[in-house]
Amino acid sequence: METPEVKIIECPRDAMQGLHAFIPTDVKVSYLNELLKVGFDTIDIGSFVSAKAIPQLADTAEVLSRIDTTGSRSKLLVIVANERGAEDACKQQGVTYLGYPFSISETFQQRNTNTSIEGSWERTERIAELANKAGKELVVYISMAFGNPYGDPWNAAIALRWTERLVNELGVRIISLADTVGVAKSEDISAMFNALIPAMPDVEFGAHLHARLDNWKVKTDAAWMAGCRRFDGALKGYGGCPMAEDDLVGNLSTELFVADLESGGTVTGLDHVQLERCLQQALTVFPQ
Mean of the pLDDT values across residues 210-223? Predict the structure, then answer.
């Protein structure tokens, strides 16, 4: 199989987390086991956060103990929101990455992790130390990287300033810019990646784009043309951030993005037969 030219991060965690009806652990394990066979670079598989805040993912530790990673090349990522969650995640031998949502919107930072931006900075510093000691790598998501619906100040300079601090002061080497509520304009996506990627060549920049069927391609095209080669998605575009708004803005549909890339000659390295199996299984996992 040819070496992939892009990193596709599949995010069943993001697809599941906002659902009110609890998906049985057995069903999650079965679905994740199939996803592990597709060939995704990374699977965002769960989170170690308050069960009260995200009850859907309270079984993440059990899920991790039961999945079968034999023969899979996919690495595992879990989301944490504070030091306690990071400590729990660091105990999981199968986990490679700890993901932390660092918001540049004061309102969303409070809603998502119950702290201020400055408090989140201190928390990120401690989580980075925990991850480093445990041999895990920290992935920081810049939440609300392209704007927010709350009226909080936003411009590219704010996003760039915090990104530079994460890289230069904390040594973060994977940063994903998140269009948390789907408000990103293609010109803002282009501007951000065109500014960051050349300036920080040792950093892997990703795009976590929440999008709808009518605008996902203009967003992904903008990121791709600006040099981004790491993209988060979820099969069928399920999910979104339940901490942002009442109406979830769906994730980038992995299968649409993959088809678009490969139609242009980009190698993704995915098993398409297995991907189709997972698409069919997703219909039984998620409420229609």
Answer: 92
